[in-house]
Every structure is written in structure tokens, then in C-alpha cells.
């Protein structure tokens, strides 16, 4: 009989690309992972991995076995969710992966509310820009608070369920000059500005570049950084104009002026994602509900006056 743990190791190696990387992820030694994969190879009687430069790749047999392993692992999680649903109680642990730009105004309030409503639940929060959905598919995290820029095609992996939370527009950020805030800005007005933008290889950087081109100009990029704190600091100093998601800007941040874009809007959808199961897991459902409530309350709290 195949060992479920070995199947999970095979999947982790396939996703991570090497036994060493998989071992680090699983908090095991590379030797221990190699030993378990050798045992799995013995169980099935055929090679499952082959060298591929400095990494490893699945053989044809490995790909076939991994397809079945995905279904087996999904069935195991479905069984766990079904038992949890019968119990009807929120569990003791959960892991959330979230974007840095969502921590102050969504993640923080959501975790505070969870602590009050479910004091037995300990949520580990991983704040990262990188490979969140991959970690979700591997089971390293239980819930992802991610983003999708509206100009990009949907790329939700198979087996992942997505719950929209909030449309989050980018605002034009400049140094505070004492003028009244809030006047919508035409994107074409930024053609003469020095901009600070994320790298064009990022979703946000790509979205900004595409919107500027649609507005009829190529932006003059003086600074390139994905660090929003650095973007705001450069804007505050009057060195550049930034385009920053609204939820990434703390209300009443001193020294800056923000304004919406009145044409060619740039916005991202913030969403909560988890592995799809037919039966709702009470623990992940509680985390997603807290994120949804925090997102809704944030938008109500900071709506511009009528």
C-alpha cells in the first residue's frame, strides 16, 4: 500500500524542484527525503524522478503517480474537513499568508477579531510577496490573502477556491503641499512627473506601465522599488510621484497628498483563497470571514465624504 507521507514528499519535490529545497520545506534532512522517495520508488517498481541539470524532474511514471497523489491528498483533506464540520468547532491552529500591503488595514484587524471570537485559535501569519498560491497547494498555508490586478488573466491553480474581498484602487501619492486633497487626477497629468514604481516584472508594475501607455505616454521612472514604505518616503520628500494601493496607505499618513485616478483606473482585487473542499472547514471559514469583515469595515471607514 502506498504511503500518504511519501506521496506528499513526491509532490513537494516536484513543486520545489529539488530534494534539498523539499527537505527544507518539510523540515527534514535531504537524506531522509531521499530515503523515503527511494522507498516509494521500490513500492511502485519504476523510477519517479530524473536529474534535470541542478534540479530534478518527474519521469512519466512520476507524473502519472502525482496526478493520483493529488486526488488522494485532496480526498484526505476532504475527510478531515468532514470530521471538523461534524464537530462544528473552530480548530486550534491555522496559517495565513498575506501581502505586506494588507497587514495594517485588513490582516491586523482580522486577527484581532479572531482572537476575540475564537481565543483557542492560534493563527500563524506569513507576510510575503512570493509564491503564496504555491504554498497553498502544498498545504504549507491554509488561507492566502492575495491580489489580482484586473488587467491580468486569471491564473487560479486547480483545486483552489477564491473568495473576493475588496476592489482596491491605486492612488496618486505626492508630497503634501497644503492644497485640499481628493481632487481626481487624470493619469495623463503624470506624464511630466518623475515616478517611483515597482519593477515592471511585478503585477503592480506591469499594471501601472500598461495604464500609462493606454493614457498615451511612457512614464518617466526615476525610482524602481516594490517597497511601499520606500515609495511613500520618496513621495513625501517630493522626489517622486507614487501610485500606491489605497489599503497600503495608513489613514492620516503625514506629509503626503493622495488623489484618485479619474481615467484609466488601476486597481487590484484582494481575495482570500483556500484549498477547495466540498465540506466547509470551520477553521478556514472563520479566518476568511474575519478577513471579509475587516475588508468591508475598512472600506466603510475610509469612504470619502459625500
Structure explained in plain terms:
The longest helix is centred in the N-terminal third of the chain and has 28 residues, at 60-87. 42% of the residues lie in helices and 23% in strands. The strands form two sheets. Strands 3, 4, 5, 6, 7, 8, 9, 10 and 11 form a nine-stranded mixed beta sheet that branches. Strands 1-2 form a two-stranded antiparallel ribbon. It is globular, with a radius of gyration of 23 Å. Helix 2 (19-26) packs across helix 3 (30-44) and helix 5 packs across helix 9. The protein has 306 residues and is an alpha/beta fold. It contains nine helices and eleven strands.
Secondary-structure content class:
alpha/beta
Query: What share of residues is helical?
Result: 40-55%
Overall radius of gyration: 23 Å
Percent of sequence in beta strands? 15-25%
How many distinct helices? 9
Amino acid at each position: 500500500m502506498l504511503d500518504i507521507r511519501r506521496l506528499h514528499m513526491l509532490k513537494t519535490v516536484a513543486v520545489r524542484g529539488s530534494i534539498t529545497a523539499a527537505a527544507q520545506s518539510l523540515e527534514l534532512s535531504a537524506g531522509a527525503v531521499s530515503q523515503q522517495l527511494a522507498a516509494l520508488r521500490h513500492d511502485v517498481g519504476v523510477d519517479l524522478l530524473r536529474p534535470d541539470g541542478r534540479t530534478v524532474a518527474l519521469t512519466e511514471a512520476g507524473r502519472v503517480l502525482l496526478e493520483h497523489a493529488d486526488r488522494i491528498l485532496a480526498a484526505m483533506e476532504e475527510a478531515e474537513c468532514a470530521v471538523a464540520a461534524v464537530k462544528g468547532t473552530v480548530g486550534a491552529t491555522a496559517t495565513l499568508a498575506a501581502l505586506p500591503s494588507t497587514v495594517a488595514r485588513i490582516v491586523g484587524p482580522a486577527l484581532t477579531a479572531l482572537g476575540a471570537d475564537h481565543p483557542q485559535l492560534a493563527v500563524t501569519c506569513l507576510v510575503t510577496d512570493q509564491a503564496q498560491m504555491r504554498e497553498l497547494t502544498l498545504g504549507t498555508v491554509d488561507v492566502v490573502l492575495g491580489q489580482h490586478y484586473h488587467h491580468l488573466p486569471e491564473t487560479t491553480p486547480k483545486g483552489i477556491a477564491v473568495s473576493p474581498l475588496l476592489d482596491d484602487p491605486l492612488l496618486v501619492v505626492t508630497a503634501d503641499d497644503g492644497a485640499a486633497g481628493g481632487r481626481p487626477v487624470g493619469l495623463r497629468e503624470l506624464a511630466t512627473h518623475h515616478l517611483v514604481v515597482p519593477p515592471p516584472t511585478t503585477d503592480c508594475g506591469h499594471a501601472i506601465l500598461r495604464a500609462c501607455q493606454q493614457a498615451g505616454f511612457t512614464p518617466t521612472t526615476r525610482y524602481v522599488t516594490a517597497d511601499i514604505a520606500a515609495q511613500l518616503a520618496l513621495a513625501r520628500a517630493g522626489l517622486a510621484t507614487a501610485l500606491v494601493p489605497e489599503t497600503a496607505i495608513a489613514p492620516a499618513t503625514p506629509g503626503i497628498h493622495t488623489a484618485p485616478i479619474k481615467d484609466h483606473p488601476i486597481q487590484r482585487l484582494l481575495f482570500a483563497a483556500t484549498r477547495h473542499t466540498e465540506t466547509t472547514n470551520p477553521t478556514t471559514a472563520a479566518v476568511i470571514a474575519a478577513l471579509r469583515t475587516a475588508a468591508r469595515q475598512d472600506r466603510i471607514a475610509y469612504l470619502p465624504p459625500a
